[in-house]
Amino acid sequence: MARHFCRRCGIRKPLNAEHFYRDTNRPLGFRPTCICCMRAMALVRAHARYQRLKDEPWFREQNTAHVKSWRQRNPERFRAYQRAYQRKDK
After folding, report:
1. Are 31 and 20 in contact, with CB atoms under 8 Å apart?
2. Mean pLDDT, all residues of the chain
3. Within a 10 A sphere around the Cβ of 31, how many other Cβ atoms?
4. How far apart are CA 3 and CA 15, in angstroms?
5. 5-10 CB contacts, 8 Å cutoff, 24+ apart
6. Rounded to whole angstroms, how far apart are CA atoms 20 and 1?
């Protein structure tokens, strides 16, 4: 089985769909960055976007509405979360 170095982390991994995302436009048929690194980069981008938008009034309103509707749809999960948080706080 062919092996390939991830461009980001430099670790040599098997060249298959378990370790690399497919990309038919690339010569090898896979992306040059491994799935682990791609997910890490996505998390960094999502966190940066949140940090950029968290103080925007429209984003805060939208987020507040989303949280409120989740609490109404999942009252037992919300109560369980509150109890766990209060136990941890003591």
Report:
1. yes
2. 94
3. 18
4. 5
5. 6/32, 6/33, 6/34, 6/36, 6/37, 7/32, 7/33, 8/33, 8/34, 8/37, 8/41, 9/34, 9/36, 9/37
6. 14
Q: Give the model confidence (pLDDT) of 27-41 as tens digits.
A: 999 999 999 999 999
Give the pair of three-digit tokens for residue 46.
């999502």
Domain range list for the chain = 54-89
Question: Which of 44, 40, 43, 20 lies closest to 32, judged by CA?
Answer: 20
DSSP string, the chain: --EEE-TTT--EEESSTTTEEE-TTSTTSEEEEEHHHHHHHHHHHHHHHHHHHTT-HHHHHHHHHHHHHHHHH-HHHHHHHHHHHHHHH-
What residues form DSSP beta bridges with 5? 12
